[in-house]
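Final report, section 2: Outcomes. Of the targets proposed, Sigma factor is the one most frequently requested by collaborating groups, and we therefore present its record in full.
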Amino acid sequence: MAKKDAPPRRDREMLRRLTRGEAAALGELYDRFAPLVHGLAHRVLGDEQAADTVTREVFLHVWQHPGAYEPAEGPLRSWLTALAHRLAAERLRTTGAAAHDTGGRAAGSGGPPPVPAPEAARTKGPTVPEHHVLKSLLGAWALAACTPRETTAVEEHLGGCGDCADEALRLRGAVGLLHRPDSLDLDPGLRARVLDACLERRPPSVPVPGWAAPYDAETARLDALLQDFGNAEWHAPVRLRWFEDGKAVSRRSTVAGVIAHLTSADGLVAVALGLDDPLGGLDDPFDGRSARGPDPAARTEAYGRSRPSPPTRAVRGPWREQTHALVRTASLTGTDGPAGSPVSDAGGAAGAGGAAGAGGRPGGPPGDPYAVPCTVPYGDFTLPLRDAMVDRAFECWVHAEDIAQAVDYPYDPPAPRHLHEMIDLAARMLPGALATRRRAGLAAPARTGRHLVAVGAPARSVRLEIEGLGGGEWLVPLDAPGAVGSAEHQVAHVALDGVEFCRLAAGHVAPREAAAGQDGDPEAVSDVLCAAAALSRM
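The predicted structure is given below as tokens.
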């Protein structure tokens, strides 16, 4: 018997995490193998919905029975390939039998009765092909090219012949390595449906926190978009847009350049979580050019200077590994907590929200391996960990749309519950953005009379109503970032669609061009819309 290949260390670690019940591990498993599993199921069944069902069944089986995988039997990829083929073949036999049963004379149709089979055919069992015939079919079986009858015969034979079973597993693994999965046919929403079904059947011992879920979902969607890009797409020009000092600015980049930017900017959270910095190894990563500290733009410039040539498709691997590491580490920091308040360098709150410092176990007990800082520095301001993860999800979606537009590919908004998290963060950051614009002379002066508005006191407010996906209402205090929005002190009301508001906050829509319904003080409405655009950055 041929010696089986030893499974990679990565597979053994994945098995350990699945057995432990880490939801992040299930997401990583799906991201690695869903295109392969779905592509194989589709080739066997020739039906998109049936392939979706088999994909769900495969990952559900793995999540419920992680011990069914024996590392000594070979790589995880080969095992999943064999499992996907077996489940797809079973479904093909089931649907084929059902079609045969219903394909005859319908009851009451008045048609001729079926002709009975000859007595010999009814009494004599099916002929079993000889061993050499079955062995010759192994290649076709690995390619899912056998007829249903041949598939049944081969799989029954594999149960009793160890040599053929080993050869079949080797061939199936080779096919999996050589076949290019049809990932563009994979429904982007299938990931959420599969993971939800798995976690409902077996609740995770280590769930992905709600504040990390948008980042997990958006990075997975972007990675699915990048899956089949060739060299031409990776070097396609992308225009990044944002607002700076009240003016629209832009920068030309490429698809690979955008992924490099996301890698370096996500590194802010990676460093806060104690992970490797993608800028690590540089003696002076900022070259004295950033007086404000390591903001995302400065990090991207440092990342570019550290590379001898422009980014290529090779940036995808490190970026995806970092995104998985962020979700995995965030899952180990603890459960959900209240939303924090963005904090400026001057110490004032940059948004109206709950107590800062939520998320993870900030400053945990000595020796706690999962203790993390409560905030992530962004240069001019800091964000609580949970808000920083939502911020990274928002930027991932925005730049994924930039990439999709560059390659002329459709791209949907995030799931409504994730979109709501992004809108909520932007709404809580508006008071701080208003204060910054006011100090720069870009917004109307505060109307507080002789006295400043105390922290926590009610202040003049604009009611921000977000309609459609991720909608809700927020009272935005106008005159002090630490004040509280008050319906009694409302001076204006502005309404926008959820996606439109996010594109305004991303700098993709100018404030005066935003499709907003408004009532009340026009100056207050203009200040809020301009503050939303001021949240944007490269």
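Residues 261 and 300 are 5 Å apart (CA to CA).
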